[in-house]
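debug: dumping io for the single-chain case to check the tokenizer round-trip. Nothing else runs in this session.
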Amino acid sequence: MKIQRRMAFHFTYQLIFYALLIVAITLVACILFFQNMTSNEIRRNFPVGVLQQIAQEAHYKDGTIEISPEWEKLIVEKGMWLQVVSAEGEVIYAVNTTPHHTLPTSYSIAQLLDIQETRTFGTYAVHTQLNFSFQEPLLYVLGYQNPDLDQLVAWFGAYEQHGIVRSDAVPFLDQQLHESGSYLQVIDPESHIVQGIGDEAYVQKAYRPLDILAIQQSPSNYDTNIVSHLDKPSGMTWILYTSHAVGAPLKHPVMESATRGLAWFAGLILLLALPVSIWHGYRYGQPLILFAGWFERMRKGQYDQVLTAKDMRRVFRRNGTMRISYRLYKEVIKSFYQMTHQLAQTEKERERLEKAQAEWMSGISHDLRTPLATIQGYGYMLESLPEQWSHEEMRIMGATIREKGDYMLELISDFSLIHQLKQGDSIMKVREIDLVELVRCSVLKYVNDTMMSEYRFHYVGEERPLLIQADETWLVRLMDNLLSNAVKHNPPSVIVTVSVGRMNDKAYIRVIDNGKGMDEETLHHLFNRYYRGTNTEESTEGSGLGMSIAKTIVETHGGEIQVQSKVWQGTKIEILLPC
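debug: decoded output
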């Protein structure tokens, strides 16, 4: 997988992961928030809210009710009891009714109506919830002992007369109500207050009729508990107000709770983002710091020290595999290795070329200095006493000066030729030529040369034309260099065999002689742009650039040249050209 795709995949799956993480956290936060809202609602409306939740969450199947064990546990802990009554009045489900022996197993219409109207059953305070979620209606009845209601009923039985408190009992009852911080109101059927006894702080609050109903439905929202008792004969209602020990007004309404929840949620996201950001910075920053060190070492030319031992331990494990934090950049690291290797090779090649150039210039200086010294020496001799030399001696001097001059001109010409060959295709005039005819003519030129009569040339070629795309002038020069080298560096008795033909999809030229051959060092430096023995005893004939020129011509044509040689076993030169 390419680095672009892998990085795209890497960041995509990270984005998906973070999105899922945020969604999960959001869901958890929402669940906790709604759970908190539900808990607050139940607390505010306890025990009415509990009954509503039980009715909503209950399961009814085949006449059987199922309620969460958590609700059953709460009912038992609070000392309450629960009954579920079917449409026929039968109790089909009950919780914690065993301690309450007076509870019936079925209810009549009159009992249910009385419970609905008075919100009491015997000595129990009762709340009901009618549920229509299933095929038939079910009535949930939640009852519990209410000490305030019991106290109110006891006072009613002890002090009631004609539906109100007896006048002689008022002082005693007023003292009891003040001691308990309570207040008693007696109202008539038209809701007029007939009597008010006890702590008058409740009177100052001036609860409205709807407030009284709200207190009964949601007692935890208020600091007051209310219980009532209706005297049916007189129509009077006794209402007892008592202090709510645990239910001060809610300090955190819904919006405040939502704001706090969002603040906690934002803080949680920030806490999660901090380590994730540090991890991202470490994961993506550490390789960049490593790369910066590489660039610094490369700037100093330390190509062989791209990865120090410490860097190697960072990037690779002991088994040689790349660590996960760097695996994302494996193409980059590989490219660094390749680039530094290439730069190191380039640096070595540059040093080699500089050394070769120095050796080349040294050799050229030597070969130019030698003939120039000869020419200069003969010039001094002729300039000082020309009359002392005979015509024959002067002819020899002139011939020597001419030979040395010709050699220097050939050397300069070869320098110019090498420069032209560096230009490549720009100086080549490629056309279709017959390689067989070109090689045959090149060999024939040496065969017909009277100065080469002591050398033996053999030609082996095909009868049919062998057509290739090449520059004829350069190939003629190539053949001249190869044949002249075979003659120049071998004794007169040498046999030079030249063959041309096709091998697979290549055209080949082979020049084989049985002469002196070459040693390993000479063979190794054969194609250097200047390599020729600098022994002053050797003939200065030739520039020493022949084989370098030959190789350049072959490579410019897209071919290959190979040389095999051993001392006193001859030399074989093979050239392969595309055809």
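debug: round-trip ok. The domain at 426-578 is CATH 3.30.565.10 (Heat Shock Protein 90).
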